[in-house]
Write a structure and sequence with these properties.
about 80% helix
Length: about 525
Amino acid sequence: MARLAARRISALAAALLWIAAPAYCAQAKADAERAAQGEADSLAAGRRYLEAEDLERAAASFRAALDRNPASAEALYLLGVVAERRRELPRAAALFEEAIRYAPGMAEAHDRHGFVLGQMGDTAAALGEFARAVQLAPALFDAQYHLGATRWWTKDFAEALPALRAAVKLQPGHAEARYYLGLTLEALHQPEPALLSLREAVRLNPRLAPAQARLGLALQARGDLEQALVHLRAAVALDASAAEWQNSLALALSQSGRGDESVAILKALVSARPEYVPARLNLGTALMQQGNLAEAVTAYRALLERDPANAEAFYNLGVALKQMDEFTEAETQLRKAVELDPALPEAPFTLGVVLWQTGRPADAVQQFRESIRRKPDYAQAHYMLGTILKQQGAAADALAEFQTALKYDPTSAEAHLSLGQALEQAGQGAAGAAELAEAERLNRQAAAAQASTFAVSVGKAKLESGDYAGAIRQFREAIRLAADNPQAHYHLALALQHSGASAEANIHFAEAQRLAPNLRPPDRDRP
């Protein structure tokens, strides 16, 4: 009887549970929906606080979301963003990693995790995370940009290129992506596309100082010094603390004939950054170009006190001393340069010249041969070696050296002259006469080019002073002397443009660009 009663109670309990189950399930569902809504509300509030940079309230909201759902990958990810903005990098990395554990396909978490790992110095792991993010979401701009920029930084230029091209395609107006694309194209020896990308980066964000600087350097490398100066000045104005940009600006100024301004910038830079070696080297060079040899020697000696193993400084010091006719001291410094840098061909060449000038031709021959060993296509070294061999009576060897010199530099008038004389002495009168005629033609051409360059220099001074008529006369004379002088056409176009002769200006702008494709009308280059 007792057993039967027990069975009836159990059946009753089961029936009661069955009757209550729908109500229980409905309650559980309602609770789950309220929790999910609370989580969503907390996440939404946190995002608003995050956008307003109210990190305290943002973190509190994301923690509230996590309380409602401890497995919320989104809450973990957003807490990681807060930690990253607080510069709490290890905590940010841990939160991103936990978010990825709950949501392995969350591309944004992989990207931010990689970014934080990169800042913590783990570049390899960062690249892995960026690559995973790109794999999961190829249209995620941040992932493509971070992957490309980091691969550029690690000098993996070939792999950086597709990622940066994808980033630029996703966000054409992103100046930094354009900038890194330009750097990568430069590294891959694609100068014209690189230049276009850098121009676009500057157009998109004229205040992006690194882009201004790199564009200036690219233009400087192409010989467009006027436009290079525009962008290098802009970079220095935006960030005067960047020593390398001031140094590059000074170099461009020196190359464009503004030696006084170049020296002033370099002296100020050396004073502010005495440890910055390139500025000290360039200061000495700028002083030499001004003819201030004694001060250049002082600058190089000061550099060598700080950096006694600097082969380039020893070489430049030797060159300056040679120009001062202090041959003994010049020889000492040049020998140190030869010893310190086995790959520097100019050092044994210049030492060879000093030895030849001081009456030691046999020793000079050894140095010229060493220079050629270091740089087999060193035309001037072959010419000098041929000159001494000719003096020593080795006519056949000398003739061979003159021919080799012309192989590497067909425009050397002195090599044509020496070869012509050697051929005539060898009984090859017709061939010798042809070489002598070519030497005379090249000398006339060089003299005209030099006179044209001087006329351009005078014209530029008149242009800067506002004497447009005088400038136009000088530039026309420069073109008369050397019709293929692109700077003469370019500056004549500028002067004509200032004078209102736009149609003729456009003709000379076009001719300048034909002769030197990097020379563009200034309105196309303005940042």
